[in-house]
Amino acid sequence: MAASIASLLEEISGVEEPIEELQVLKTALFSIPVSALRDCVSGQRFNVIFSLLNSNQREQVELCVDILERILMALSPVCLVQNYKMELHAGLTHPNETVKILALTQIGRIVEHPDAVTDILNNHDILRAVIHCIGEEKIAVAKQAIQCLSKMSHSKPGLDKLFQRDLLKVMKDVMAMSDIIRYRIYELVVEISSVSPISLGYCANSSFISQLLGELTGDDVLVRATAIEMVTTLAHSQHGRQYLFELVGSLVSSSTAMEILGSQHYISLKTYLREGPYYVSAVASVSTEGAD
């Protein structure tokens, strides 16, 4: 079967309109169980398929994505980062959202693997491109980028890299694009913070948590409601709830809580932190009061 795949790749590289040949290759690949596919594709080079992504023909691009998704999932993360790092980087800036999602999915696999992640952590261009994907119009791309960075933050080296000054600046630049994208960054921050007290510390030290709390004082009711939802999500973890409880308590002792949060938001947040997740609906109702 490996020989036939090599033969199909050679055929594809020799034609100008390879749609039919791509369909044949896709059928061949999907006829092989994933468990057996690795032996068939190991040692093969799929540069021709990556090169065919650079096309205005959507059918061709989608066929290539289906083929590459099948192939790359059969390869180990170490093999991926050693052989296709440049191609994955190029995929992050591709105009087609399915190519971006393919690249982000595979990078997500790599950052979860202890023997592969270092190559990604040392590649500033890839990390910057992943962060910029949070600002993409297509929500599916943004969600995949958030998931990828969240996985990366599960290790201390990942946290160290993500919260370095240069990448923090990239995140803050992306936040400035719009209200919607700013809250996507908050979503990432809350996901990271919820993992452990250590990851929460990184987010707090970078000022993201205090900035999120500051959103509670805005004039836009829907923005405030979203901020409350984010804060309550953070408080679902014990360490997150304890951190917020102590933070709000410190504001009380300095007599600035009402000024910073507003009386209604302070009371609802304080009650939530004391009573826990069962108070979410009550907090949400307070935050949206007067929306009509």
TrEMBL record:
Q: Which Pfam families match?
A: Proteasom_PSMB
Q: Which GO terms describe its biological process?
A: proteasome assembly
- Supply one GO CC term from the record: cytosol
- List the InterPro entries: ARM-like (IPR011989), ARM-type_fold (IPR016024), PSMD5 (IPR019538)
Transmembrane intervals = none
Q: Which family does it belong to?
A: Belongs to the proteasome subunit S5B/HSM3 family.
Q: What is this protein called?
A: 26S proteasome non-ATPase regulatory subunit 5
